Amino acid sequence: MRYSLRWLCRYVQLTCTPEELFNRFTETGTEVERFWRHGIEDPRIVVAEILSWDRHPNADRLRVCRVSTGAQGEHQIVCGATNFKQGDRVALALPGSRLPDGKLIEPVKIRGVSSDGMLCSQKELGISQEAEGIWILPPDWSLGTPLCQWIPADILFEIETTPNRPDLLCHEGLAREAAAIGCGEFFPVETGPLAPCDQPLDWPVKLEVPEACPYYGATLLEDVTVGPSPSWLQALLWAIGKRPINNVVDVTNFVLWELGEPLHAFDADSLDGRIIVRYGQPGESFLGLDGRLYTLDSSMLVIADGQKAHALAGILGGQESAIGPQTRRVLLESAWFEPAVIRRTARKLSLHSDAAYRFERRVDPSAVLRARDRAVLLLGEVAGARLRRSPLVVGEPPPGPGPVRLRYSKIWAFLGVSLSQEEVQAMLQRLGVRCVEEGKNFAVWLPPSWRSDLGEEVDLLEEIVRLTGTQSISGRLPSGRMAPGRVDEAFDRMERLRRALAARGWQECLCIPLLPRGEGDQHGLELANPISSQYARLRLSLKEGLVNVAALNVSRGNRVVRLFEMGRVFRRTQQGMVSEEERLGILWAGEIGEVHWAAPVREVDFYDIKGVVDWLCDRWELLPVEGPIELSEELQLQTGLEVTGYYAEFSLAKYLTSPKLRMLGSFQPLPAHPPVRRDLAILVPASVEHREVLQKLWDCACSLVERIELFDCFVDQEGVRIPAGYKSLGYRLTYRAGDRTLTDEEVNRLQSQLIDRLKQVLPCTVREGSPMRSSAG
User: How far apart are CA 423 and CA 574, in angstroms?
Assistant: First the structure.
């Protein structure tokens, strides 16, 4: 959030330099991210008036302007902007002046025409980021006067406020904090009571949902003249990056940044004489001040009359009741809204405003009437507004923080700092905390309404150490026993697999698990409030993210792309629940390796990635859920991947939860006895996959089976040698014992037992004439 030091000094008399103030803010937990000089310091940048203009004789997009600076005479300026007309007041940088960015203005010739200075935009003067056209000044700014008289030099600074300190979201709150941390004397904003009125306000206000809006104030102002704000008000708004609109709207913005309480001004004549605070109706439309049409639902709080909604409560006003030049009566809203309700609506509509930012963090209930009184006073000054009817207030403000008991002995026990009771009381009183009861070794303190974060004893202890300074806490070594940490088994297994892939030349990716909204995907999980349309749903697979990374690498000239990612995928089950699963995705695209003089360049093919898949399945016992497959042309065109690529995805559920895994075993010495091999040919339906058969073989095998490998796959389309619709799979089983040489009789018996068990768990038959070949060594 951006703040103005000149504005801040309206409420605090500093006893230190700006740099010391910013350092002290940061030391006490209010981090100042950066600060910089703002405003116009060069007196040769002045107010000028457009007398006339003509087209440039040698350039279609340039204009030759004649401007006046009053007593300083007339000047000829060549300008490329088109947003001005005769009689407009503009900012003129005379020759010899220097812009805030250091640029020196000198007389020049542009396409053969002399230009005696420069007409400046707001961006060129460092006022704002608006660079479209030159800056059109208020008509009451005197000709020839330096702009530094209207936009004084200032120091701006940005603060990162924490969610528990909404009181720092205004200049008065920052001034109060500056005084509390010992940097000056605080002077609160003088609002004063409103002048009494003889007539009550006959404008019914109905709170249909008091749990969402328990406190609402309405004030009717008449004889309002809408126009530009005075220069002092515009200058303060420009300083914090807010564009002045008109005097009524500018006052509400000024009060928001002064006191932290958002207000809203309705054109009273556009309402039907009632105010109803209610939830929106399903499908109800609302046209906002930003020109967008919003569709409401029953969870969104609105401010309405008897006909329609005129504002999203605490977030955005409506276009139909906006303040305009024709406005003569203003209904001023000052209210307190439940933070959760405002936050929910803002997120659903992806709509954020200065008002919503404050209501979401809980504004000070006592500021509701203070802000109203301050706005009424200012509107009387800058817009001629008159208060003829007493303001209306409905409901009660929410309760503030309750009393907190502080034991003085806890200061040393928690903080290790020795402070006297007088020192503690002085610190807390600077924060606005009042002592309501005092005992021998304790005191009961009542936090102010703007410090809703002070609810427990530890909160007061935090404030004490914050004001004392962490540098005052002495360093002490911790005492007690240090318990050894435990290694998480699942994390350790993930790390082993990650290191193994990296050792084989694969590079790990971490892709965002959010993807654009998909069509026709009944298992996808769409976000209720995505940050953008590109991140609207949770991923069902790791493929899309890896393909996008591969396309980026190839476009940058990387010829060898071997990527993997270990992460979660999300899907909706048939019961409507959400399922999350850890998976591994691998993608190999481009060439198989770096160019070498002794080896030809070759693109990756199916068998390259199949070898990796076999290694992951056999060595690491991973279960494939997709692939290996070649990436489709549609996906390659969609992502811009210009080379052939292959992808495979595995479930890590079994790998992470199995009690024993072969690849995690201890060291085994080299075998001293020869192996015995047997071949097994079985018939299975063509729909049965090799990985299913292999898994069943391992389940049925005894502990002496060392290896199982597929060496043959036969399909007879004519159905002569084997029935149609079946396939023959040939497996070679390797038996070995660690303490002896196995005999043929022993191996034959083990093989027969395996076949019997396999027939019970798999629809298969051993082919007639199946070789039971034996080999040793």
Answer: 64
